[in-house]
Each structure stands twice: as C-alpha cells, then as structure tokens.
Design a protein that fits this description.
This protein is α/β, with parallel strands linked by helices. The chain has two domains: 2-63, Alpha-Beta Plaits; 83-332, Aldolase class I (TIM Barrel). It is 34% helix and 16% strand. It has eleven helices and 14 strands. The strands form three sheets. The protein has an eight-stranded parallel beta sheet. Strands 2-3-1-4 form a four-stranded antiparallel beta sheet. The protein has a two-stranded antiparallel sheet with strand order 5-6. Helix 3 runs parallel beside helix 11 (318-332) and helix 10 (279-292) packs parallel to helix 11 (318-332). The chain is elongated. InterPro entries: Aldolase_TIM, Class-I_DAHP_synthase, DAHP1/KDSA, DAHP_snth_FXD, DAHP_syn_2. It holds the Pfam family DAHP_snth_FXD.
C-alpha cells in the first residue's frame, strides 16, 4: 500500500499517520523526495481500509499495490534502482556491466592471469567461486576462504570489484572483507533464512540468481525477503530455467529482462554461461542480452578450459572473451547502455 501526502502536508501530518500504522504493527518505507512526501506500508494490508487512512489530515490518496512483492515493485518505486560499487562501476544506469572470471578459483596464478586479461578487455567485476555447490559430492567444492582472499588480492591489482557465491548464513562475516557483491545461486534462491540474514547483516549488493524452476513472481518474492530485512541493493540475475530441452544446459528466458523492467525497479543481468552450457553460444547470447536491455552479463572465462576444475565447456578462452568485448563495445554505440 502506498500513501501519498498532499503538497502542503506537514511533518506532523506525516508523523501522525505513520505512528498510527506502526502501532498497528505495519512497517513504513519512506520514499519521499524533496518535492513529494510518499511512503509504503509494509505488511499484510488486506484488512487495512484505504478510506480510513485518507481521513488523516494531509493525505492525498492511498493506493493498494496488487503484487505480493511490495518493495521490489515498480508500483512502489518508479525510478530505477542504481547501485554504485567502490571501484566506480554503476549497475542499473546507462552502463552495460561485464562481470567475468573463472567458474572456480583454482590458484593465485590462474586467477591473476584471468583478471589481468578480463580487466584489459573491459570487465570491471571479477567473478569466481570459492565455495561451490556441486551436483556431485565428489566434484571440486572450491578453495573456501583461501579462494576469497585470492579474489580480493587479485581484483585490487586491477581496480576490479569481486562477486562470489555464498551458500550459508554462517559465512556472511567471512565474506564481508573480500567481496563487493554477494551472489545467491539458483539452488539457494528460496533459502529464505539465508536471504533474510543477508538482508539484515550486510548492505553490500546481493546478486540474486533466478531459481532453475522459479516463476518471475517467485524470484521477485525472494528479492522481497532481502529488501524487507533491510538491504535494498538487490541485482537480479537470469541464468536460464529448466525446461524439457536437453541440447542446452538450461533455456535462457531473455524475455525475463523485459518483464522485470516492467514489474520492478531492480537492475537485472544475464548469465549466458549457465544458460547455454556451451562456450560457442556465449557471444551471441551476450549480444542479445545487451540488445534486450539487460544491465550487464556475468560470464565464465578461463585460459585453459579443457583443464578447468569446473564448467570448462561453458568457459570462454581469454582471447575469445576479448574478441566478444570488442563486439559488445561496437554494439553499444547504437544502444542506450554502453560498455565503458
């Protein structure tokens, strides 16, 4: 529910109605600007009568938000959410952001080689898995905290930000010194305790991947868990959904970008690597992501994919990534979002 105050409403008018609502157990999200006083009512508002609120002095109108996700809704916030990282990367504005790196952190030397090449090609965010959720318990599970330390040390050499996947809430404090963005993987999209803990215990951005079988509404409801817990810096990531098709690893739902832009103010990036599972498709899917209006991509790259410890088949070689970046920069010259 959104309450818009009149132009001449006073601070006392605002405090009176918000105090009334908080005493009833509702949360208040103040979205006022210099020229407009407006706030959202957070909670189950089915029993709340808009006419009762319009009786308060200074209230202009009260609007119900029909979607179950409130804070993530475009109805609640008309302007796009823009996230600025410490290295100057801006996500959600006119910049097409490229995140690139290995599926798994394998060694300092390997990560250094990848980051140096990725940065030179134009990527500003280094991705890499230190903790790896694998289908098989016998597969490489990641280097753990040592992997995070490598990511941070290497990224700092090239003024890159770091994004890495977190798998449980007991790792939040361990991740905090090393990452600029926490990543929630597809398997944890509905791990509500992890979502709530991240929302409450960090203000760093959260990259929320879509569950492999999740609807867009379920995806946005997961974002709502993070935002309702106190962290509004959420970046959505479409990584392909599971369908009956077996030729590709997943089916990239590129229309999800357009749907999210209509339904939500949150930025959205695409992961073409996990969507296709084939390195030969990454370049065209990345260009399609750019053309459809995504805010960026997250891509897996490796100097020797044939010997990568995980996901080599969907990793671009460094020279191929550099070639792709050239094409993305060229394409961006005729699009709203630029590769900078």
């Amino acid at each position: 529910m959104i309450v818009t105050m009149q132009q001449n409403a006073t601070k006392q008018n605002f405090e009176k109605i918000t105090t009334y609502l908080m005493n009833k157990g509702y949360g208040i999200k103040d979205s006022s600007s210099e020229n407009l006083m407006v706030f959202g009512v957070i909670g189950d508002t089915k029993s709340l009568n808009p006419n009762d609120l319009e009786a308060f002095e200074g209230v202009k109108n009260v609007t119900r938000v029909s979607t179950p996700y409130k804070l993530a809704s475009r109805s609640f916030k008309k302007t796009d959410t823009i996230i600025t990282l410490a290295n100057g990367t801006v996500i959600g504005a006119d910049q097409f952001v490229v995140m690139a790196g290995p599926c798994s952190v394998e060694s300092y030397e390997n990560t250094l080689e990848i980051a140096k090449s990725a940065s030179k090609s134009g990527a500003t965010i280094l991705r890499g898995g230190a903790y790896k959720p694998r289908t098989s318990p016998y597969a490489f599970q990641g280097m753990g905290i040592d992997g995070l330390k490598i990511l941070r040390e290497v990224a700092d050499k090239f003024n890159m930000a770091v994004v890495s996947e977190i798998m449980s809430e007991d790792l939040i404090e361990a991740f905090e010194p090393y990452v600029d963005i926490y990543q929630i993987g597809t398997r944890n999209m509905q791990n509500y305790n992890l979502l709530k803990q991240l929302g409450a215990r960090t203000q760093k951005p959260i990259l929320l991947k879509r569950g492999m079988s999740a609807t867009i509404e379920e995806w946005l409801m997961s974002a709502e868990y993070i935002m309702a817990s106190g962290n509004e810096n959420v970046i959505l990531c479409e990584r392909g959904i599971r369908t009956f098709e077996k030729y590709t690893r997943n089916t990239l739902d590129i229309s999800a970008v357009l749907a999210i832009k209509e339904l939500s103010h949150l930025p959205i990036v695409i992961d073409p690597s996990h969507a296709a599972g084939k390195y030969s498709m990454i370049e065209r899917l990345s260009m399609a992501s750019q053309a459809v209006g995504a805010d960026g991509i997250i891509v897996e790259i490796h100097p020797d994919p044939e010997h990568a410890l995980s996901d080599g088949a969907q990793s671009l070689k460094l020279e191929k990534f550099d070639s792709m970046m050239g094409k993305l920069k060229e394409l961006s010259s005729v699009l709203d979002k630029k590769v900078k």
